[in-house]
Design brief:
It is a single chain. The chain has helices at residues 9-16, 27-30, 37-51, 72-79, 92-97, 106-115, 133-136, 141-148, 164-173, 205-217, 238-254, 262-273, 277-306; strands spanning 5-7, 21-24, 55-62, 65-68, 85-87, 102-104, 120-122, 152-155, 178-181, 200-202, 224-227. It has two domains: 1-118, Indigoidine synthase fold, CATH 3.40.1790.10; 124-308, Indigoidine synthase fold. Strand 3 (55-62) and strand 4 form a beta hairpin. By secondary structure, the chain is an alpha/beta fold. Bound molecules: pseudouridine-5'-monophosphate (PSU) and manganese (II) ion. Pseudouridine-5'-monophosphate is lined by residues 25, 27-28, 31-32, 105-107, 124-125, 127, 140-142, 159, 260, 263, 267.
Length: 308
């Protein structure tokens, strides 16, 4: 496996010096946001991770290698290229073997982070059970991955382009903890709350690190979702954004958008319909997640070192 992994100098140094590393995904760059805001966001998020005392590892597929950490030039190339493949678990072997340029989703970032022995991962939102999934069976591979891969994902919950209730049911069935950071309700990405109550509210990063350590010490396979609400000042008006989301979902149906194209299509339409306001919210929440995720990574690293 090692022959496929290529570490950036920064990540290699972090490994030697036992510094906490935070994985970052690349689909959010290539398919989640337009250029140049995508590259700008990626750089700022990496810097936040450094400022918090951890080391960022943006993960992507290039030249037949799984890159663990990108250089500045690679990040630029990645955010500004046409035809980057959105790589889920099923696509990974082909994209690596054919040396294509590939963006890792939550699923593949978790897979590659585990290969590189990184247990913390920060992003914006996870995939889930899509609305109408009882007919389309469109359920993101992210949920299966959370069930089996030992990586914790810090996100701002899930968007209501998804069926949040079914997404929570699925995660419960699969035994994935969803931990609310200073909230007892699942955040809905653009807004701070939803009607879905979580089973566990954590007050501090340290409580989250303790819970993660206990889960993995107990041999309970799989990841966890750490749901961190968007900051109050960046949150969008609930009825406004929900109206826009409903419209985008309808348009996707009319345009026969399905499968892996669904999420990027919906994100793009929501951005257009909100005149870019959804993009501002998206960027703000990812940055906030980077801060919280890095602090959890630091806390977890200390606990693992001390074996307490
Ligand atoms: N949600 C976002 N932005 C994103 C994604 C989700 O707000 O960029 C991306 C993530 O990479 C996630 C993927 O893993 O979409 C889910 O895609 P799908 O629904 O096709 O599984
Ligand atoms: Mn899907």
């Amino acid at each position: 496996m090692e022959q496929y992994l290529e570490y950036s100098q920064e990540v290699r140094d972090a490994k030697i010096n036992d510094k906490p590393i935070v994985a970052l995904e690349s689909t959010i760059i290539s398919h989640g946001m337009p250029y140049p805001q995508n590259v700008e966001m990626a750089r700022e998020v990496e810097q936040i991770v450094r400022d918090e005392g951890a080391v960022p590892a943006t993960i992507a597929i290039m030249d037949g290698k799984i890159k663990i950490g990108l250089s500045d030039e690679e990040l630029e190339k990645f955010g500004n290229s046409e035809g980057v493949a959105k790589v889920s678990r099923r696509d990974l072997p082909n994209v690596v073997a054919m040396k294509k340029l590939g963006a890792t989703t939550v699923t593949t970032t978790m897979i590659c982070a585990e290969m590189a022995e990184i247990e913390m991962f920060v992003t914006g939102g996870i995939g889930g059970v899509h609305r109408g999934a009882e007919k389309t069976m469109d359920i993101s591979a992210d949920l299966e991955e959370l069930a089996k891969t030992n990586v914790a994902v810090v996100c701002a919950g899930a968007k209501s382009i998804l069926d949040l209730g079914l997404t929570m049911e699925y995660l419960e069935t699969k035994g994935v903890p969803v931990i609310g950071y200073q909230t007892e309700y699942l955040p809905a990405f653009y807004t701070r709350t939803s009607e879905f109550k979580l089973s566990f509210r954590a007050e501090s990063e340290e409580e989250i690190a303790e819970t993660l350590k206990a889960k993995w010490d107990l041999g309970l396979q799989g990841g966890a979702v750490i749901a961190n609400p968007i900051p109050e000042e960046d949150a969008m008006d609930e009825s406004y954004i929900n109206g826009i989301i409903s419209q985008a979902v309808k348009e996707a149906e009319t345009d026969n958008i399905s499968g892996k194209d669904s999420t990027p299509y919906l994100l793009g339409r929501i951005k257009e319909l909100t005149n870019g306001k959804s993009l501002d919210a998206n960027i703000a929440l990812v940055k906030h997640n980077a801060r919280v995720g890095s602090r959890i990574a630091l806390s977890l690293e200390k606990k693992i070192e001390k074996k307490v």
